[in-house]
Amino acid sequence: MDGTLLNSQHEMDPRVLSLFETFKKKGVLFAAASGRQLYNLENRFPTIKEDMLFLAENGSFVRYKGEELLLQALEPEWVKHFILLAREVPDSHIIFCGKSKAWTESNDPRFLAEVHQYFDRHEVVDDLLQVQDDCLKVTLCNLDKGAALGSFPYFEKYTEEFQVKVSGKIWLDISHKLANKGRALETVQKHFGITPEETMVFGDYLNDVEMMKQASFSFAMANAMPEVKEAANYETLSNDEGGVVHILERVAADL
User: Fold this and answer.
1) 3-class DSSP state for residue 167?
2) Other C-beta atoms within 10 Å of 198: how many?
3) What are the φ/ψ torsions at residue 166 (nearest 5 degrees)?
4) Suppose 61 and one of 47, 56, 89, 213 were both cysteines; which one would form an S-S bond, judging by CB atoms 3.0 to 4.6 Å apart?
5) pLDDT, tens digit (0-9, with 9 covering 90-100), for 181-231
6) Percent of the chain predicted with pLDDT > 70
7) pLDDT in tens, 9-64
8) Strands (E), the chain
9) How far is it, in rounded angstroms, from Cα 149 to Cα 122?
């Protein structure tokens, strides 16, 4: 979504909806794979969401037509551990990304403005340790130093046991070791009997790397990070140049 299908103003090319209808008639499934919350993703596609796949929360939660295809939550003891550690990170804000909604302890206006963009269901509480919900990931937002410098160093030692992903300039996501967009896509492929040779993906950030390896037609955006370009088999235009639509229109012309 961000940096890929959406431009820098978080807008989606209106041609996407007509392309969706074209692909739907040919039996092609369309999926949104993102670090965003499921409910936020669904609301970005109000007219077609009933026919779409959603790989939400960096692949922790996959749903299609109301059916859960995958739910990969963190163990409660590790959720507590990561929240306590996150409280030690200067100038950062914590989000408990639950199955039902997102939870945070911060009332900072700048932070909440970011939360509103990506989490349609959210609530401010006094203590995240008291939240009772499946935790899909613990997210840190560092508005000033950014995720790579401000948050990641505190969690770097957990990269072997968990998914610790810089998923945007200010966002760091900690999730289950098995939770990533690549495994989520693999789950979808097995469910529908789709091969990597029948799969096309687009991405720009580090949380897209595993997904690139799960599709023969993997495209890195021109604005993608070097690691994503290295993992992808192809490259397209930037998100502000309509790189996704550029490729999809070429494919649609050959259907």
Assistant:
1) coil
2) 14
3) -80, 105
4) 56
5) 999 999 999 999 999 999 999 999 999 999 999 999 999 999 999 999 999
6) 100
7) 999 999 999 999 999 999 999 999 999 999 999 999 999 999 999 999 999 999 99
8) 31-33, 53-56, 61-64, 67-71, 93-98, 102-104, 122-124, 135-141, 163-166, 171-175, 200-203, 217-220, 234-235
9) 26
pTM for this predicted structure: 0.88
Helix (H) or strand (E) holding 230: helix 226-231
- What the block records as the tokens of 201 is 């993906």
Q: Which amino acid is at 56?
A: A
CA distance 67 to 60: 14
pLDDT of residue 168: 85
Distance (Å, whole) CA 27 – CA 12: 23
- The confidence score (pLDDT) of residue 63 equals 97
CA gap 196, 187 in Å, rounded: 12
> Apex CA 99: angle with CA 42 and CA 231, to 5°?
70
Q: Give DSSP secondary structure letters for 87-139.
A: TTSTT-EEEEEESS-EEES---HHHHHHHHHH-SSEEE-S-GGG--S-EEEEE
Dihedrals φ, ψ of 67, to 5°?
Answer: -95, 130
Query: What element of type H or E holds 251?
Result: helix 243-254
Kindly state the DSSP code that residue 12 receives in the 8-state scheme: B
Helix (H) or strand (E) holding 181: helix 181-192
